[in-house]
Amino acid sequence: MIKVGDTIPAVTLYEYSEVEGEGCSIGPNPVDVAKASAGKTIALFALPGAFTPTCSAKHVPGYVEGADAFKAAGVDEIWCLSVNDAFVMGAWARDQKTNGKVRMLADGSADFAKATGLTLDLTARGMGLRSNRYSMLVKDGKVAALNVEGPGKFEVSDAGTLLAQAKG
Known about the structure:
Blueprint: E1 12-15, E2 29-32, H1 33-37, E3 41-47, H2 53-65, H3 67-72, E4 77-82, H4 86-96, E5 103-106, H5 111-116, E6 119-122, E7 128-131, E8 134-139, E9 142-148, H6 159-167
EC number: 1.11.1.27
Family: Belongs to the peroxiredoxin family. Prx5 subfamily.
GO molecular function: thioredoxin peroxidase activity
């Protein structure tokens, strides 16, 4: 499992953008994790699935509401990762009103989740291999803080915990 001090996996995630801009098509657009995190402080959180109850009611809204506080604490971007495709993440972004606050990144084949060792096997529940619920503070591509939830828990990966770590 990835740990503090490790470099985050150099994989490609995908993002569906609602609006065209900066030469980007609407989507899905590849996001090279190594390039996108270079020289930046990222508040990254991952969860089992888009539109799922805890993720939609608590996890994402906390980061959306806290976006300004994260910026004030020196965080350049907030990333939400889930093992869903970019179209689902785009629809969820619209539903959660994340535009300009949280980047909703698709880890469709669970490449990032597998590379970090933070997978969650939900095959028995019809959801296949997913990401565990966690948050991490990433500085210039390296893990500065990591908060991994226990099974079925939502206690340490919330926005408040990661914001306190960002304020350091």
